Every structure is written in structure tokens, then in C-alpha cells.
Amino acid sequence: MRRKNWYLIVGAVLTASMLAFTAVGFFWTPYEPSAMSAADKYAKPCAAHLFGCDQLGRDILSRTLEGAGATLAIALAVLAVGALAGLAVGALCGYHGGAADALVMRLCDAVAAFPSVLLALVVLAVTGPGKYNVIAALGVLFVPSFARLVRGEFLKYRDRDFVRSAKLIGVSDLRIIFVHILPNIWPVLLSGLTIGFNNAVLAEASMSYLGIGVSATEPSLGYLLKDAQGYLFTAPWYTAFPAAAIVLLILGVSLLGEGVRERMGVGT
Amino acid sequence: MMLSVRDLSVVFTDRGEPFTAVDRFSLQMDRGETVGVVGESGSGKSMTAHALMGLIRRSQVEVTGSAVFEGADLLTLPRRELRRYQGKELSIIFQEPMTSLDPTMRVGKQVEESLVIHEKLAPGERRARALDAMALAGLPDPAEVYRRYPHQLSGGMRQRAMIAAALVLRPRLLIADEPTTALDVTVQAQILETLKAINREQGTAILFISHDLGVVKALCDRVVVMRQGKIVEEGAADEVFHRPRQEYTKLLVASRPARKKLRGGGGDG
Amino acid sequence: MGRALLKRVLLLVGTMLLVSVLAFVAFSVIPGDPTSSVLGIEATDEQVAALRARLGLDLPVWQRYLRWLAAFVTGDFGQSYKFGLPVAELLASRAEVTLVLAGAAFVLIVAISLPLGLIAARYEGGIVDRIVTVLTQAVMSVPNFVMGIGLMYLFALVLHLFEPKYVPLSDGLGAHLRFMLLPALAVALPKSAMTVKMLRGSILGEMGQDYIRTAYSKGHSRSSALWRHVLRNAMIPVVTFLAMAVGDIMAGSIVVEQVFGIPGLGRMLISSIGTRDYPVVQAIVVMLASVVVVCNFLADLLYRVMDPRIDGR
Fold first, then answer.
1. Does residue B269 surpass a pLDDT of 70?
2. Is residue C86 included in any domain, yes or no?
């Protein structure tokens, strides 16, 4: 009698396919992604090159596989930095409260008011481009949104009876945070992670597209699109496939997040 | 006969098993009469009121029977026709005066809203009628209250604003759905006095829904006791209160906390 | 309202000062001595010392900050290392271009999302609602620049309705705006999808409130209750959302400028980052931040006007 959760089903299928596609790229690509071939310049999609070739005769399927891997790796690294640090900051602020909490949260509000792409561009303007700088900059900038999310949830649970009774019988704060509260906020956190993942993919792609992200030696999907831009009218397939990969990845994860929210009854 | 309800049933079909909230409810009401419907929460009394008002018309709720009001069956009238009655011939006030008022609209505008919907009047005329209704509902300084927002009023004043809005077109029937439950005791008494006066002076019939038999006795001529969607007892208010025939009604009388007589003075809190 | 307003204004000024300190530290302190960027590496010691004195680099940091701030608020943003021109002069025309783009995008977002959100909520569960729900979910997942590339391909190559060559304002306002329509759409579409979703949810949430039941009991139809009561209440969170979106719109404009070759602040920012032309980067960053901060301030005021419950505090 329960309505089918299409978000969850479609999202899971789409995300799983994109992850499988990316996973393949880690082990095998039909051609060496950077191998050029004068004969195949601007080759249209065909049996030998499913996605066609670029202006230097490189196989676009191989390049997209490699790029999806780079994009995924960066997004996951950003998420790891942002979510872990955000979790720590949010948990401490929400659990202890006080003046430090107020100060940290005002700071988070200030940072969160600005789009992360812009802030990351500013950071990279000083540090210079490169994969690790992108991860560090975006990771740090993602901390406030996670911290706010986690803090809000901790505030909700801090005064619940089961937390109070745990305190009374002398359970340590760390144990309360990790064992008693964290499992309860998991649905909200999961939904936040899907949003964060998409924002990371989006931010990295935009930055690399602008040429202030990863370097040419580790092309991400955003970098491929920047490279393809000049040939939009001569080799549209060079743009189309990396673009489709980005859109499908984001779409899959956002549907998955929507499905999780519907399933767990979490408000957006 | 102003209102004649026959075998009104309300069945919810949206949560798996069909659930019967109101089961063959029947009631006759004359013009100017005051009738109370009493029961504990979940007895179907509010659902009855909402069904008569046409407020639960949606898919997955089956409303059957008939409710003939001044010759028209409220349950089968097309929506468009029904709307000509709502707010004009019959009105309703609710339990929660805070949430029942639009928080972003000035109180006066909400009082005169039925006028906007049902009659074409000049703004000045509308305002004058609204101020009249507000005075009738016992609001002190109507002109001041007119330009306030709901959150700036006390609970009792909000309920009086709701009453004013319900009465602005002088309906024949006012349905009061637990209008005093959310208010404290002295305010409750004052609101009851106001409703009584309106009934007496305007001839407005009142269908008063409450879980509190004592409150109903203070206002109504007749009373209907409901339990699990069905009518279990009915009769003159005094009769039912002092000599209840059903065990359930006795329990309702007994569970009523002893209180001073419901007479209050002074302004609303 | 008076005290609340004063508090907001103070907060606005405070935030702007914070932005200025951060921008100063990031681009005037951390990168170190700009003399080599200006004079080149073959400059003599005397030249370097003279320039340092002229730029005030021999002063303590806080004095340098105050001098910089005083100059900045009077419109003196310094000299570009690369072009040797005053930054203000360099940026004036470009800021105009970006503002037109971002402004057009904002207007489009409102124009697209309000009707769609309303219709979807009014006919909840109907065919239009379902189409809108699926479309918003899909469009939300397309990054601005991918949307831009897609629109460009579709309108230029397939439909031949768009000439992908920038038309400056000097060629006439109409022609300029016609060119800007597509880039603005690229900025606006993904955000519109989010706004539609948010507005629809907000309207449906308000539809279930008690005061809507009251409206029905007064003889309102679903549509008239929607217009007279729901919309105003439902717009309150949406206004906040739209104000927060201004930052994203600016960011989107900057990326989309790159797609369509529009000579605005975005392209200037990217090329200046590339050439480490810090005074230009600094000025653009402060400008963009100011727009975001001021828009949040205005949204806060609007929010207070729309929701009478927050007055007086």
C-alpha cells in the first residue's frame, strides 16, 4: 500500500551505473587516454571509438572514463574533509553550546553566505591551481554547511531523556556523541552528504572549466569541457559525453538524496 | 426546520482499513436554537461540524447522508453553490484562534473578508460593517484592533476576532468547534456570555461542539452526546446533565472537574 | 522597526569591514611584495625602494590597511600590475556587463519559477505538476556552464536563432539584451528549478494550515484562497531563498561569461588570477562580496515587511 519510492529506485540505479562506469575507468580504458592519433582527429562516434575522438585524435570514451574517475576522487576527498571536520565542529558546538558555539556559528553563517566556487577561486588565486589545492580549498569551505547541519541535529538531541540519563550514569561525552546521538542523526547526515557531494562535483567542474582547477595531467570532467569548448561546433560529441557524465552523476545522487529524505521522513 | 441532518456518515478510506469517523448522525435544528454536541476527543463531533461546513470534501473521504439547510442539501451541493452558503448563511469558528487566523493579514481585513467574497461594497462600507461585527463580538476598541495583526492580540481577543469574522454577514447558523478549549477559564466564560448574547439579540442559531458538558449546559437548549462516531444520548441540556441515562454520559459529567459557576467579569486576559 | 533597522545597518557595515580585512590580508599581505610584479625582476634597489615608499609598503600593516580602505571607499582600487591602468577604470564597463547578466538572470528566475511553482501547487498531483516535478529535478542537476554550452549548441547550431558573438551595449540596448538572453537563461534555469521546487513545497505546506481552512469556511475557492492568503505566507521563505541565491547567481554569471565569451567581471577575474594581477582580483572579489552582503541585507528588510510577526524586535 505504500507508494513506490521512485526517487530512491531511479537514483540508486543511476548512481550505481555511474559508479560502475567510473570504476571501470580505474582498471581499464579502451585506449590510453592521452594517446594521440593524427588519423582519428575529430572522429565521429563509431565502433572503434564509441564516443568519438577529440582535436588531437584522443579517444573520448577513455578520456571520459579517466575524467569521471578524477572528478569522483576529488568530490569524495572534498566530502571527506568537509564532512569529517564539519561533523567534529558541529557536534562540539551543538553538544556544548555557549559563547564559542555562537562565535563559530556566526563565522559559519558568514562563510556560507558566499558561493563556494567564488571563495575557492579566491583561495586558488593565492595558492595556485592543482588537484590538492582544489580539494583543500573546497574541503575547508564545505565545513560550515556540515557544521550547521550537525549542530542543529545535536541541539535537538542534547536534552532528550536518553542523553540525560546516559549523562547521569556517567557515560563520557565522547561516547554520548558517537554512540548515543550520532546514530539518530544518520538520515539527516546522509541527505546532507548527497547534497554536499553534488556541490563538490559542481564546484570542481566549474573551477576546472574556468581553468583554475586541476591541471592538464589529471583532467577531470570539468577540464575536458574546457578543452572541448573550442570545438563545440566541429566536434560536439567531445562536449556531449563528459557533460552527460556530469549531469547523470549529479542527477543520480540528487534523486538518491531525495529518495532517502522521503524514506526517512526528513524535511528538506 | 432550518437544518435537518439525516444519517450523516463520514468514512476515511486513505489509511488502509476504512475508518468510520461519524456513523449515521441525525439532528434537527430550528432557527435561533442552540444545540450542543458533546463527546471525548475522537468521538467524531468535530468531524460532524466540518462535514456540515463542507470542509472535508476531498477524495478518500466518503460523506453520505443528507444535511438539508434552508432547503438545500449541504452534502450534495456543487462546490460552487456550496460556497454561496459558506461564510454567508453558515459560519464556523475553530478551536485554535492563533493558527486559524492568517498571520500576515491585519485582523480587520480578515473580519471583513466574507463581505469581500459575498457582497460588493465600497471599502468604507465594508469597514463600517466589520467594526460593527467586532463590537458585537465584544472586542474593545474595534478601530484599534482592526489594524492589528493576530500575533498582537491575546487568545481571547483572537477568538473574538474569529467570531466577528464569522458573524459579519449575520449568518443563520454559527458552528462553534470547541471555541473556548484553548482559552483559560475566565476568558472562556466571557466568550460564552458573548455567544449567548449574540444568540439572544441576533437570533443566530449556534451548534456548539465541546468535550465539556458543563460548558454546553451553560449555553445550549439541547444537547447531543456522541461516542465513537455515534449519537448515544440526546435531550434537553439540563435533563442530560442532571439525569444522564447512559453510563458514558454519566462518566462525562463525573469527569468534569468541579468549577465555580461560569460567570466572569472584567476584560479579556 | 527603527532599532531593528539600526542593528541591521550596523551588521551590514561590520560584515563589509570583515570582507575588506579578509580581502586586504588575502591580496595585499599574503602575496608579499608586489614591486617585482610591477617593476620586473631587473629593477634596481633604488627603484624598488622608491616604489615601496610610494606604495606605502614601509608602513606598519594596520596603517597600510587604513590607507588602502580609505582609498578603496573613495573609488581608488589601485593600479593593475598587468595593464598599468587604474583598476576602477578597468572594471567600470565590465561590472556593468556582469550586472546586466546577473540582473537579467534574477528577473528570469522570478519570471520562470513563480508561475510554474504556483501552477504545480495549485494542481498538485496533476499532469502539469508531475511534468514540472520531473523537469525541475532534471534541470537542477545541470551545472550552469553545461546548460550554457547546451543552449548555445541548440540555439546557434541547430535552430540558428543565436549568433555566438558578443554584442556590446554600444550596439544598442535591444541588441545587447537579445544577446544576453541566452547566457542569462543558462544562469537562471538551474536556480529556477530549485526555486520552483521550494515554492511548490512552501505553498503546499501553507495550504494545510488552519487559516486556509478558515478561508474555505468563508467561501473562498482553492484558487482565491491561494491568491489571497497562501501566496503571501508562502513567499516569505522563498524571498530569503532568492536573496541567498544572489551569490550563486553572481558565481553562475562568472562561469557563464566564459562560455559565451562575455567581457565581464568573470573573465577579468579569471585572467587576472592567471596573471596574478592581485589588485584587480582584490577589487572584483570585494565588489562581488558587497553585492552578496547588500542583497542579504535587503532581503532581511523585505522579510520584515512581509512577515508582521518580526516587527519591533
1. no
2. no
Residues 6+ apart with CB under 8 A from A190: A257, A260, A264
Residue C137 and residue C205 in one domain:
yes
Q: What is the CATH number of the domain that holds C254?
A: 1.10.3720.10
H/E stretch holding B233: strand B230-236
Contact in structure between C299 and C245 (CB atoms under 8 Å): no
For residue B56, the chain C residue with the least C-alpha distance is C213
C-alpha A76/C-alpha A35 separation (Å) is 28
Domain that holds residue C256: 94-312
B227: its cell numbers? 461516542
CATH architecture of the domain with residue range A6-26+53-264: Orthogonal Bundle (1.10)
By C-alpha distance, which of B266, B256, B165 is closest to B218? Answer: B256
DSSP-assigned beta bridge partners for residue B91: B174
C88 domain residue, yes or no? no
Q: What are the residue ranges spanned by the domains of chain B?
A: 3-28+43-235
Question: C258 and chain A: CB distance < 8 Å anywhere?
Answer: yes
Instruction: Answer yes or no: is C80 within a domain.
Output: no
The strand pairing partners of B90, in sequence order, are B86, B173
pLDDT digits (tens, 9 = 90+) for C257-296: 988 989 999 899 988 888 888 888 888 988 888 888 888 8
**What tens digit of pLDDT does each residue of C203-230 get?**
999 988 999 999 999 999 988 998 889 9
Which of A122, A206, A233 minimises the CB distance to C143? Answer: A206
B3-28+43-235 fold:
Rossmann fold (3.40.50)
Total number of domains in chain C = 2
**What are the residue boundaries of the structural domains of chain A, listed by start?**
6-26+53-264
Task: Collect all residues from A whose CB is shorter than 8 A from any CB in C.
Answer: 110, 113-115, 117-118, 121-122, 124-126, 198, 202, 205-206, 209-212, 225, 229, 232-233, 236, 239, 243, 246-247, 250-251, 254-255, 258, 268
* Pairwise CB contact (< 8 Å): C218 & B102: no
DSSP string, B23-66: EEEEEEE-TT-EEEEE--TTSSHHHHHHHHHT---STTEEEEEE
The answer to whether the complex's ipTM is over 0.85 is yes
Beta sheet of B34-38, edge-to-edge order: B90-93, B173-177, B205-210, B34-38, B222-227, B230-236
pLDDT of B261 strictly over 60: no
Q: What is the per-residue pLDDT for A18?
A: 87
Asked if residues A19 and A71 have their Cβ atoms less than 8 Å apart, the reply is no
Indicate whether C58 pLDDT > 80: no
Q: Which amino acid is at B78?
A: P
The model carries a pTM of 0.84
The average pLDDT across A243-253 equals 89
